[in-house]
Every structure is written in structure tokens, then in C-alpha cells.
TrEMBL record, chain A:
Keywords in alphabetical order: Cell membrane, Membrane, Transmembrane, Transmembrane helix
Membrane topology listed for this record: Multi-pass membrane protein
Keyword Transmembrane: yes
Stretch list, region Disordered: 1-22
GO cellular component terms, A-Z: plasma membrane
Family statement drawn from the similarity comment of this UniProt entry: Belongs to the UPF0718 family.
A matching Pfam family: ArsP_1
Protein name as catalogued: Permease
Taxonomy of the source species: Bacteria, Bacillati, Actinomycetota, Actinomycetes, Kitasatosporales
Domain of life: Bacteria
Transmembrane stretches, start-end: 28-48, 60-85, 134-158, 165-183, 217-234, 246-266, 272-292, 312-335
Compartmental location: Cell membrane
Compositionally skewed regions (Low complexity) per UniProt: 7-22
From TrEMBL, chain B:
Gene behind the chain: ycgQ
Keyword Hydrolase: no
NCBIfam families for this protein: TIGR03943 family putative permease subunit
Ranges of residues in domain DUF1980: 140-233
Keywords recorded for this protein, A-Z: Membrane, Transmembrane, Transmembrane helix
Keyword Nucleotidyltransferase found: no
Classification via InterPro entries: DUF1980 (IPR015402), DUF1980_C (IPR048447)
Protein name: Membrane protein
Positions of transmembrane segments: 36-55, 76-95
Length: 336, 239
């Protein structure tokens, strides 16, 4: 389907492009793009020479380069789950009742070391392996926030407020479980895009494994690039005085940092340092920033839409945002 | 994009990551600690590309005809060409004065101040000098000459700052630490030029218009242009 779109106009003249012309088209287009880019190097560089465009490019490349290793890690894990772990394993490992499976999967998020880019493909593989979606979603939300690397980074960034670490852990787990239970009550499986079977087939296990790696890398990678572009645009465009104005009002400051967490799409391993530098904001607002960021941001939204379908992401993202803000505010009211 | 084209893109992307990771290029975008992960993921991408080509050939040979694409191949994958081209053809520079002036100084009160290096002038990082001057009232700096390396930024009134971006993970979270310069400066100041500045402590302090953070002054005695350092960011906060 997609291939005909990419084909050069010439092939569309025929009644139906044969398999041969389809097969040739995308490598040809790829070659042409690369060739043109190399030939037009200097005008492109000239266009991108302004400081604004340069810092946009730097942030764009940085977000992509930083996220790719974690994406590859997640893709390898998800391919291993999809090919080598039998579905019966998850049936045994997780409690049969979904209501209990949700918190177990949420706590299990602590063992995936990495940031949010790794958790999306892994959660997709869990759903394909028959794990109840509610539990897989709890895992998706908790894994980037409560793993030891992220919690250690939080402790380093907030040396004078160790309660931030506990607050982040509890609030993230709470919100992840609440979203899992919410999905179990209200979620409908037809919102989730049916898993693409073709990508995980293969004559041998090795073929199925590499097929899954290829498909997930190309797919989630494309959405990652889309998210990185959005994040770079907002990083370049967000006026800093706007934040200063919001910091004065307690309600605005919480909402402002929640929105900022979504827009900036910073890796969950680094967001604590950014939160710590927002000195004019209250600890509550900073906790909201730390809970919202790993659960929903532009990059994650794009990747979730790619893995689970747009219909899912459009419903799941706003609910996650509201739940994360409420959960973090509640935790900080009790704890901080 | 069909599988051969996907294999080509994965191969190029893997090669670009290996290239960036094995030179200093990656330090413009991410922290130094990510290097092993970058190299490993570059290797995995190349392996996936080769595996795709190999299985595709075997499949074509055994089936006797090219297999049909029963499932949609993701069109979004074409976007992966953008970071590839950006990294290989353009290789944008590390964040400079434009970003530094748009965000407030990220200086934070340190736990403790180490002893000053005995060399004269004492080599210090921009962050180290700024925190000693802003929070330690320059007590550890009295009577000493210090040497700092950073890049120049000029605000709209033309006032010069020596800046170093502090980085935790990647350039998206990089934040500036600024020092205002006074004293004998070079006659021509170009933003983004890297300088080796020698000077002494000045008790003057100003506040960043962006976030009201403290910006200490440095009394410059001499300034020398230097090439961009090996790692343009300050990563001391990672350790």
C-alpha cells in the first residue's frame, strides 16, 4: 500500500504496477534522495546557517542520537519477547486476574533500564504475546520512571530534597496502576490497532527475530524522528519569560511544568536535572514535571500512535496527562 | 519503503552512528558516557541490515519469485533519512550563544568547594568559578589568578559573557552557566568564539534577566582565542 505512494509518478501510468516495479521503486527513490542531498549540499547548508536553524538542528540530531541506542535496546528486547518467550510464560508469571496483573506489571517496570523510547516497543510485544493490555500499559507507563537509573539521577539532581525520589517513585507507580485499571474498566480492544502479523513471521526463529527488529526499528524510528522534530521546534520556540510569569501562581505553575514536560520530550534519565534548574518553581510543580514527562510527551505520543494506532493514542494520551498531573499533585500534597 | 531500501537505510544509519561514536562528533550532541551504547546500537543496526538482505535473498531463491507485500510497509520510515542526512552532511555544531542567551543560567549552590589547584593561574571550569564567586563570596578565590575556558555570548546591549553549556544527557537538556566579563577584553568580540580567559575574582554580581539566577563577574587580565575543546559541554554534573 505504502509502496505505491513512494513510487515515482511514471509507474502509476500503468493500470496496476506489477510486483517488479514496486520492488524497484523505493530503492530508486532512496538513491535519488541521497544523490540530490549530496549534490545540493552547499545550498542546504546556506539555508540552515542561521543561529535559530542551527540550534534546531543540533537539538533534533541530539534527541535522535540519544534515543536511538535505547530504541535499539527496546527493539531487541521486544523481538526476543516476540520470538523466544512462549506466551505461556506470561500466563504463569502474571496473576490471572487483570486487576492484580496491573500492579505486578507496574512494579516489573523497574527492571527495564533505560528511558521511554525502550518501553514502547517492549509494551507492544507484550500485548502481541497475549499479556492483558491493562497490564502492558501499566508497564509502559511505569518502566521509564521507576527504574534504578532514573531514580539515581533524580537523587543526584535533588541533593537537598531526597523525598523527591520517593515522591517520583510512588506517584509514577500510582498513576501507572490507575491507568491500567482505568483501561481495564473502560478500554476497548478495538481501539488498539490489531498487531501486524506479517512483521513477525519467518521460516526460522532467526528470521522472525531479525524481521521483528527491522520492522520495529524502521517503524518506531520514524515516529521517533517525528517526535524529535516537534521537540526541537518547541525547544527553539518556547519563550523563557512565559515560564517566569507562570511560576508565581501555584496552579499555573503546576500546569505550566506539566505542559512543558510534554513539549520538551526530554529523556527520563535527564529530566530531573532540568526540573532542578527550574528554580523559581515549587517542589510540587517539579514533581508534576517528573511524573508527566516519562509517561506522555510529543515523542512518546508519536511512538504510541505508531505502535498501538492513532485511535488509541488520541484517547490514551489526554487521560494519561490528566491522571499524571492529578497523581503527582496528590502525592506531593501527602509527601512534600 | 521495501525491505531492500529499509536495509539500506538501517545500514547507513548504523554506519553514521559508528562514525559519530568513533570520532568526537557525538560529543556535540550527547554525553560522553553514551559512546559504548552508540557503537553497540550502530553495530546492531548494521547486523539487522545484513540479516534483512540475507533472508530476503534466501526467501526469493527458495520461493522462486519475489514475495508479495501482504502487509503495509511503514511510510513513516522515510523520516529516518532526515537525521541521517543531518548527521552526515551538515553535522550541526554544539549549542552556542544563541541558545545560551535564550535560557537562564543553571548555576546551583554546590555541596562543598574543593581546594583550588596550586598552579598559577589556577585552571577552573566556568561552573566552578561561578559557584565559588556567587555562593562562596569568592572566599577561596582571593588573591588568586584563574584560567577559564568557554565561549562568548553578547546580550542585546553588547555586554560580554563567558558561557559553558552544562549537559546531563543530550543537547536537548543542555543549560548555560554564565560569567559576566569586565576588565581588559579583546577589542573585537565575536559571539560563539572560544576563549581562554585569565582573570581575578570580582565581587560584583548581576542577575540573569531570563530566570533571575546569579551571574558573577570576572576581572579579565588577558583573553586568548582557542579552538573548540574536545568536549564542548561541561559534564561535571554527571559524576
Amino acid at each position: 500500500m505504502a509502496i505505491t505512494e513512494d513510487a515515482p509518478p511514471g509507474t502509476e501510468a500503468g493500470a496496476e504496477p506489477g510486483p517488479e516495479s514496486r520492488r524497484l521503486s523505493s530503492p530508486l527513490v532512496l538513491t535519488l534522495i541521497l544523490l540530490l542531498a549530496v549534490l545540493a549540499q552547499s545550498p542546504i547548508r546556506g539555508l540552515l546557517g542561521t543561529p535559530l536553524m542551527q540550534s534546531w538542528m543540533t537539538v533534533f540530531v541530539a534527541v535522535t542520537v540519544q534515543a536511538l541506542p535505547f530504541l535499539v535496546l527496546g527493539v531487541l528486547l521486544s523481538a526476543a519477547i516476540a520470538v523466544f518467550v512462549p506466551p505461556s510464560f506470561f500466563a504463569r508469571a502474571l496473576p490471572r486476574r487483570p486487576a492484580l496483573a496491573v500492579p505486578v506489571a507496574g512494579v516489573a517496570g523497574a527492571i527495564l533500564p533505560g528511558c521511554e523510547c525502550a518501553s514502547v516497543p517492549v509494551a507492544g510485544a507484550l500485548v502481541r504475546r497475549g499479556v492483558t493490555p491493562a497490564a502492558a500499559l501499566a508497564f509502559l507507563l511505569s518502566a521509564p520512571a521507576i527504574n534504578p537509573i532514573v531514580l539515581t539521577a533524580t537523587a543526584v539532581a535533588f541533593p537537598h530534597d531526597p523525598e523527591m525520589v520517593l515522591g517520583r517513585f510512588l506517584a509514577s507507580l500510582l498513576v501507572a496502576c490507575a491507568m491500567g485499571w482505568l483501561w481495564q474498566r473502560l478500554g476497548r480492544t478495538d481501539w488498539l490497532r490489531p498487531p501486524a502479523h506479517g512483521a513477525h513471521e519467518g521460516a526460522t526463529k532467526g528470521e522472525a527475530f531479525w524481521n521483528s527488529v527491522r520492522h520495529d526499528t524502521m517503524h518506531a524510528g520514524g515516529f521517533l524522528v517525528l517526535g524529535a522534530m516537534a521537540a526541537a521546534t518547541l525547544k527553539a520556540a518556547t519563550p523563557a519569560d512565559w515560564l517566569r510569569a507562570a511560576a508565581g501562581n501555584p496552579v499555573f505553575s503546576v500546569l505550566a511544568l506539566a505542559v512543558l514536560a510534554v513539549l520538551l520530550s526530554i529523556c527520563s534519565e535527564a529530566d530531573a536535572f532540568v526540573a532542578a534548574s527550574l528554580t523559581q518553581f515549587s517542589l510540587t510543580a517539579k514533581l508534576v514535571f517528573l511524573v508527566v514527562g516519562p509517561m506522555i510527551d510529543l515523542k512518546l505520543f508519536a511512538m504510541q500512535a505508531g505502535t498501538f494506532g492513532r485511535g488509541f493514542a488520541l484517547r490514551f494520551a489526554p487521560a494519561t496527562f490528566a491522571m499524571a498531573v492529578a497523581g503527582a499533585a496528590l502525592t506531593s500534597a501527602v509527601l512534600l | 519503503m521495501n525491505r531492500q531500501a529499509q536495509a539500506a537505510v538501517m545500514f547507513l544509519l548504523g554506519a553514521a552512528l559508528l562514525h559519530a561514536g568513533s570520532t568526537d562528533l557525538y560529543l556535540r550532541y550527547v554525553k560522553a558516557g553514551l559512546q559504548p551504547l552508540l557503537l553497540a546500537s550502530g553495530g546492531v543496526l548494521i547486523a539487522a541490515a545484513l540479516a534483512t538482505v540475507w533472508y530476503e535473498r534466501r526467501r526469493n531463491r527458495s520461493a522462486g519469485h519475489p514475495h508479495d507485500h501482504a502487509h503495509p510497509e511503514p511510510r513513516i520510515s522515510w523520516l529516518l533519512l532526515l537525521p541521517l542526512l543531518a548527521l552526515i552532511l551538515i553535522a550541526p555544531p554544539a549549542l552556542g550563544s544563541y541558545s545560551a542567551l535564550r535560557s537562564g543560567t543553571a548555576l546551583q549552590k554546590p555541596y562543598a568547594y574543593g581546594t583550588l589547584p596550586t598552579a598559577n593561574p589556577a585552571p577552573l571550569s566556568v561552573i566552578d568559578y561561578a559557584s565559588r564567586a556567587a555562593y562562596g563570596h569568592g572566599r577561596s578565590l582571593h588573591g588568586r589568578t584563574v584560567r577559564l575556558t568557554g565561549f562568548l555570548a553578547l546580550d542585546h546591549s553588547g555586554a560580554p559573557y563567558l558561557v559553558r553549556m552544562a549537559l546531563n544527557c543530550c543537547a536537548a537538556d543542555a543549560q548555560p552557566v554564565k560569567i559576566a566579563l569586565t576588565g581588559s577584553l579583546p577589542p573585537v568580540l565575536r559571539p560563539d568564539a572560544w576563549l581562554d580567559v585569565t582573570g581575578t575574582y570580582s565581587p560584583r554580581l548581576t542577575h540573569d534577566p531570563v530566570n533571575n539566577g546569579p551571574i558573577p563577574y570576572l576581572n579579565v587580565t588577558s583573553a586568548q582565542p582557542v579552538p573548540v575543546p574536545h568536549d564542548p559541554y561541561d559534564e561535571t554534573w554527571n559524576n
